Fold this protein.
Amino acid sequence: MTTLVPVTYKGGVYRHDEIMDLIEDLGGYIVQKHVMAQDVVLQSFVPRDDIDLIREVAKPLAGEVIEAPLVGTEIAVVSPSLEIHHLPHTSCDIAEYLRSAGAKTNMVGLARGFGKRIANLNDEERDVINEHDLAVYVLGSFEECIRQKFPVLRRGIHVPIIVTGAPDRETLMRIIDPPVEGYVGSIGRIMHRFKRPEELAKLDELVDEVSRTLDARRDALARDPLSVFPPRLMAIVEEQIHEVTMLTHPTPVTVQMEGLRVKLPYDMYADAVRALEVTDGVTVGDIADVTPSRMRNYILIRIKPFSETRILV
Amino acid sequence: MPPLNYFVVESPDEVGRDAYERIAADVLQDLDLIKVIDRLHIYVDPNVPIFVAAGVLRHMPRAIRVADFANVNRGENEIVLDIGDETYLAPLLQRLWLLFGKENVEQPDRFTVVLPAGVSGEEDLEQMVVANPSETLYKDVIYALQYIAPEGFKVRRQYIREGRFYYVASEDTLPADIVKRMVVPICEKMGVTL
């Protein structure tokens, strides 16, 4: 079986359709396509053995292929507050940097996240965060505040969490109990855009921490694989429900590690999605839970593992 | 950041202290207040919780007059104002319209304003006060301190008079004697009496 690896293709608009065709012909999937003026960025999964071939085809087009560990993941960047008080926001820089590593990031600003005594997390915020593959908590400068606030802000969250804050990594590890999946220290409240080398190094450290955590999850998934590879299901949804192509969202169908978010109204399209035929005689309803998302009125598809369905597409 | 004459940030949390020193420097720089503030002392303790900032202003910027940014050329039939800096053009036009009437104030291009000669009040045109930046400076200083303080510290007490200011904020209700207990000792460190 060929292994698909997440890569980012960066190149010009000119003849980029050839690259897209090539990726699809090789059995890969394009998860996200960004066209920015003259440039095109493709977030995709391609067979490991064919990366060199794509590099060769892209050479005359001045395109480059970079390994992007976070392609196909949806990450929540959670900040206790997205108020004007903190502009320019640290979480904006973090979300942007994770995007450049291939992730689809959503920023979650809590309604009542500030103040160590009054901070809390409401049910909508909790459910929205739990719909992601991973949550990055962007916390502030004081050790005492993080110690008091964090247990409240993580209540009910069962996705892996990475915590960032001004105290160093060791302090964060000491004050957070029970432990979370990752820690990046020395970030905290910064009132300017990340620009110094040590600040940018912190962002790289964060990407490493996130990919290490997600790799651990991928390893676990490899032991009990999903009934269908999410990007493949995405291709099927896009092919068969033509309304998806008319959506103006940057990612009308967002790929997650264990499912998809389809940005169509649940009430109108859930049955159509469930009835989609993935392969002969197997429908989406057989291999996945199609549920309403807490994010607007979208549809959330959670793919069941092989051990549950005994189907592998 | 060019140094203030006195700039100290105190906190029992060493990491937080460094962070707030950077935050204060960034905010003062962004809001262009470094030239205005002479001394600033910040004390922040999340355990209490309390945030105190006290300081002294350097000097209040003086009122802006027409002569500061424009040349007044008096001709036989008209007075031509040659604008050097557009910053205060809008308040200048407002003043001129009020004094001479809109129909008498012509503006052939961005940097020229023409008035008819012989209108009353033209004699001290050069000395006419157009704007007074110190009016809004108080607000700017308090805004900056509010901006520096941690977001959760919503209960606050502020004071700015005769070049001295303080700002106290907390998450909880502020005790009545907070100024005497926390602000006065900080001011003494800077050699200032409230």
Notes: The mean pLDDT of chain B is 89. The first strand of chain B starts at residue 6 and ends at 10.
